[in-house]
Amino acid sequence: MYTGFAEVYDELMADVKYEEWADFYAKMMAAFGIRTGKICECACGTGSLTIPLQKRGFHVTGVDMSQDMLWRAAQKARDAGAAIPFVRQDMRKLHLHRPMDAVLATCDGVNYLLTDEDLLAFFHSAYNALRPGGGLFFDVSTPYKLKNALGNQIICDDTENITYLWQNTFSEKNQQVDMHLCIFVKQEDGLYKRIDEEQKQHAHEAKHLMDLMHQAGFDRTMVFGNRRMEQPRENEQRWHFAAVRRLDPDGTEGRQ
After folding, report:
1. Cβ atoms within 10 A of the Cβ of 196, count?
2. DSSP letter at 246?
3. Neighbours of 36 (CB within 10 A)
């Protein structure tokens, strides 16, 4: 739930180019006819992508399971002059007041769904949250990345205020990477606060994800390479997915 992790998340992610991510997601949505409107961003974290999307003309609702992440997101949005509602919800059980034009899950949000049951719950939830013709857009770290770039690695860094040790173990049996982070944060008195964080990500295959989206009712499912509106290359480290809530032949909303 990122209770302690939330206070250092932005500093650890400082090298992520969120403006470029926002540009790409805006481009991808536009390719499916969504150039403005209402967006639900699932697993929004501290709002680092939510705020740039809002500034590009979308009306965004940020959803996350971590109250600490959402509190920081609300503070950042207020400082940026952006009126964004942030809501504590499980992305597998979305309950929104009005239909969305798009549902997003960015920055590995879907990798944290470890089972087919969880994936289908999210896809059904997103489907029901969308207007007819609305789109689902998300990205995942690829199996290649989780196995070869993150799995069975120890990553260390030491900055002026934060030192961390990040140990990962990839399980071929479970097709998931277990991540253990030990973070030391310098306090005002010069002492260090220790934060321990454990996470798991699943190595989802692209075809399987698209099959489950079809099962949930989505149409026009597509997969793209890392921030490119092109087919993925070999050994791609990130895939982006898009799908549309289909209409019934009579033009009604389709199944619920």
Report:
1. 10
2. P
3. 13
> For 166-205, what is each residue's pLDDT tens digit?
999 999 999 999 999 999 999 999 999 999 999 999 999 9
Instruction: Please state, in angstroms and as integers, the Cα–Cα distance from residue 205 to each residue in 111, 114, 135, following that order.
Output: 11, 12, 21
3-state SS record for 153-213: CEEEEECCCEEEEEEEEEECCCCEEEEEEEEEEECCCCCEEEEEEEEEEECCCHHHHHHHH
Q: Which residues contact 167 (CB under 8 A, 6 or more apart)?
A: 153, 154, 155, 179, 180, 181
Is residue 39 within 8 A of residue 59, CB to CB? The reply is: yes
- The pLDDT tens digits of the residues spanning 132-174 come to 999 999 999 999 999 999 999 999 999 999 999 999 999 999 9
Looking at the whole model, is its pTM more than 0.85?
A: yes
Burial class (CB in 10 A: 0-12, 13-18, 19+), 96: middle
Q: What are phi and psi of 54, to 5 degrees?
A: -60, -40
Rounded Cα distance between 102 and 130, Å, is: 6
